[in-house]
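Researcher: Please predict.
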Amino acid sequence: QVQLVESGGGSVQTGGSLRLSCAASVITASGPCMAWFRQGSGKEREIVATIDGRGGTAYAGSVKGRFTISKDNAKKILYLEMNSLTPEDTAMFYCAARGSWYCTYNVADYAYWGQGTQVTVSS
């Protein structure tokens, strides 16, 4: 049974940092694609960052240079290091996994989801 469990969310002030973690039973050295999505209040769920089965990473333009996605294959944990946070980053953050090693930006392409962890950034 696939399990994804996020942690690390919280409340910070503008300019602060947080590190999200996702304990994911599916993580292996060669895949699958893992991703972080987020959904703000009244908004659609959107991609934040992906890491594919070969270790390649990609980021949404709004977070590039501020966020870093990584994973520990041995511990089966996916991370999202977030720096220079702004109120626009306030959202529920979700960890997701695909059934394939390569990544897409489409919510519908991800079969497995965590429950989410809330990130709130105050000005």
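Model: The radius of gyration is 13 Å.
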